[in-house]
Amino acid sequence: MTPFYLFAAIAVGASLLVIAQRNPVYSVLLLIASFGALSGLYVLLDAPFVAVIQIIVYAGAIMVLFLFVVMLLNAPHEETPYDEQVHPLMRPGPMRLGAVLALGLVVELIWALEKGAESGRFAGGAVSNVGAIGRLLFTEYAFAFEVTSILIIVAMVGAVVLARREGAR
Amino acid sequence: MIDQVLIPLLKIVIVLNATLVAVTYMVLLERKVIAWAQSRLGPMRVGPYGVLQPIADAIKLMIKEDITPVRADKWVFTAAPIISMVPALIVYAVIPFGPTVSLFGRKVSLYITDINVGLLYIVSVASVGVYGIILAGYSSNSKYPLLASLRASAQLISYEVAVTLTLVSVILMAGSLSMVEIVNAQYNQHVWFVFAQPFAFVLVLIGGLAETNRAPFDLPEAEQELTGGFHTEYSGMRFALFFLAEYANMIVVSSVVTTLFLGGWLPPFPNVGALHLLYYVPSWTWFLIKSFLFLYLFIWIRATLPRYRYDQLMRLGWKVLIPLAILNLVVTGIVKVMLM
After folding, report:
1. Is the peptide bond between A88 and the residue preceding it cis, with omega within 30 degrees of 0?
2. Is residue A2 part of a domain?
């Protein structure tokens, strides 16, 4: 049980610090730490494949891009005295939307924790077999799998089209 | 108790120390081999033929002044060398140096652990290693390290795709992600995968060179353009940590290529009965000999090939290696299905 509490504490602590940080680069780093702890939790759940994929996809690929963007755009430290004075729900447009969404997330989380405490349980070792995961992906979940890959390709093509300069050959 | 705790701990201590010693001596080997390639003698002063040079180097690096630039981001600046060193070392957890042997009447496996996603674990740990370089460049608050770190991360991400895609065809051949099972598959199929997957072998080797920032892909350390590269602002032991990580990664790539393509700990022609006397040589010796060949190849390439230009590097990665990797994967899949 101890490793669970260790990883859980790191995940929660790092995630809280992500939003408490003023330096965006630190936020990215703490998010990576949080992903690492999550992957540790997956190992404890007998799902090493998910744990490893979590590191490859999130920590290894997506967060590198995040870090790139934060470094290259030279995002300033968030230090506006205005934020401190006004209640989050009273701020202009996007901030208010964000606050409402966050509130919705909290409600959803509480609802999910109340309802589905015992629904998604797997037997120990049920998802540790990579072959079994592959077979499931290409038979039972083939449609969802293919739709996801088409979505990703569409996003990639869209990014290339948007980023291409007119007349550049 | 002994099997659960003591033996794994002992193995970890042995592997870590052996790696660090190997890494320091890789530096000497590199200097020597490059010197020979250039008709020089290389280090000769410390000990006979300079064999004690790494010790002198280590002492020098440890007693050097450790400078942190004033405008640097102190926390990240300190963490960056650690972040690049740790992934380079924890990869050794899944590298099989030999099969399970009996030692003093006890079954001991010559690897720290064998997990069923071993190869993916190596890929994932390698993908985390890039943070060390990016953060070193960012936190130095200096233009050349930043440029180098951007180059490095773009290079590492591009070649990671090609290498990982190529590894899939090896996994198809072996039918397993476990490093030990991949070696066993080469024994059972009577062939080292270098002969079954020659394209994959070449692709992984090229990708491995790029992933470890070795010549001809050493753009992050292009001293002529970047005054040293991502570690320009580092000094003393922290500077050394980046190099230790690079050499440790070289050993990792050599070990992985050996395991995947040259049958790991298996002797040459493992299934030929007449050559059975080769089994009297300890299995890990074969592993070390094969890995050493690749390390030597890495140094040899550095001594002979000029550095790629940045656009050439990107073109090679995206327009040559990745399509070839996908083609290789498709052909492997078709052949595998036809043979079934």
Report:
1. no
2. yes
Q: Which residues 6-35 of B have a C-beta within 8 angstroms of A?
A: none
- The answer to whether the beta carbons of residues B122 and B103 sit under 8 Å apart is no
Number of domains in chain B: 1
Residues 6+ apart with CB under 8 A from A33: A10, A14
Secondary structure class of B42 (helix, strand, coil): coil
| pLDDT at site A76 | 61
Looking only at Cα atoms, what is the longest distance across chain A?
61
Determine the Cα–Cα distance for residues B120 and B177; give it in Å rounded to an integer. 7
Helix (H, G, I), strand (E, B) or coil at B189: coil
| Partner-chain residue, chosen from A25, A52, A68, that has the shortest CB–CB distance to B120 | A52
Q: With beta carbons under 8 A apart, name residues in chain B contacting A68.
A: 134, 150, 153
A40 found inside a domain: yes
Amino acid letter, residue B224 = Q
pLDDT tens for B267-305 read 777 666 666 666 677 778 888 888 889 889 988 888 888
- Count how many domains chain A has: 2
- Is B59 among the domain residues? no
Domain coverage including residue A152: 129-169
In a domain, A23, yes or no: yes
- Residues B48-88 pLDDT 10s: 887 888 888 888 888 888 878 888 788 888 888 888 889 88
Q: At what angle do helices B74-90 and A24-44 cross, to 10 degrees?
A: 30
The per-residue DSSP string of A10-50 comes to HHHHHHHHHHH-SSHHHHHHHHHHHHHHHHHHHHHTT-HHH
Q: Supply the range of the domain harboring residue B214.
A: 64-339
Q: What angle do CA B28, B203, B244 make, to 5 degrees?
A: 25
Residues A133 and A72 in one domain: no
Residue A120 has pLDDT above 60, yes or no: no
Residues 6+ positions from A127 with CB-CB distance below 8 Å:
A45, A46, A47, A49, A50, A133
Task: Determine the pLDDT at residue A149.
Answer: 92
Is A111 part of a structural domain of the chain? no
Contact B134 A71 (CB under 8 A): yes
Q: Are residues A64 and A5 in the same domain?
A: yes
User: What's the confidence (pLDDT) of residue A147?
Assistant: 94
CB atoms B125 and A55 under 8 Å: yes
Specify whether the CB–CB gap between B84 and B241 falls below 8 A. Answer: yes
Query: Mapping DSSP to helix (H, G, I), strand (E, B) and coil, where does residue B102 land?
Result: strand
CB-based contact, B114 to chain A, within 8 Å: no
Do A5 and A71 reside in the same domain of the chain?
A: yes
Query: Average pLDDT, whole number, for chain A?
Result: 80
Interatomic CA distance for residues A55 and A49, integer angstroms: 10
